[in-house]
Amino acid sequence: MNDRYKVPGQTGDWFGVDLPDRPPVKRKAALREAAMGNPATSLHLPQKKEPVMARDSPTIVRRDHAYHVVAEDYSYKSEAYYTILAHELAGDDIRPCSRAVLDAFVVPVCLERASHTGIPVVPWGISQGYVPLPAILYGLNYFATTSEYSVVQDTTQAKEVIKHITNLGKYPFCYQKISDRAAIHTCTAIFGWTPGNNDEIVTTAKKIYDLFAIPLVSMVFVQTGNNFALSSLAPTRYTHLSDEERAFLSAYRNHQEFL
Questions:
Q1: What are phi and psi of 132, to 5 degrees?
Q2: N or C end: fewer C-beta atoms under 10 angstroms in the chain?
Q3: Which tens digits make up the pLDDT trace of 61-78?
Q4: pLDDT recorded at residue 134
């Protein structure tokens, strides 16, 4: 056994992956040299109104003396990430900051930072084979995204998922032990506001926004009884927004009043 993160006395299974190596996957070129080469091009709001829902394109909202970058993708080397960097280099008050978007979408880092501010989080561990059951599993490799997670109930299912998210044992993964009676609840937060949810989620969403300042984010919670604990944060596609969420996002961009 080679699991430094296993909790003493915790029951679970170890799934060692002893398979032949595969050639490393080539990284997809995603450099945005234009944004970094001429940062002044993205330091000011455009004169023309751009559609809020432009797919894969970040929108900058100026409100409360700060720039807010609204995007579907804040990942490293994305257009939104370089837009944030350009504003930081110019000394602007930019939200979210580059550290926040890097931390928010790495599950262990996100949960550690959240727990330090009093946000309830799901207990987690990092492993290369061991996993308690049932559990939620997240990949931690370079290509992993928090938009993809798996709930495993038995050893056969867990072994197959681990092979996939570890690239046949090359990378560790994050596990979250959950109750047999737990339910997964996903919702979207827009500037810390999430409609149609109970008071606990509404309060937690505001705390998450205060911590990371990400305008558009999907929140995954584990519900056990009446309690909700944060499992992860993930990017949100504009096409996944409800009509009410779209209206709220548009109102925020256009400086309209909203409740």
A1: -75, 160
A2: C
A3: 988 889 999 999 999 989
A4: 97
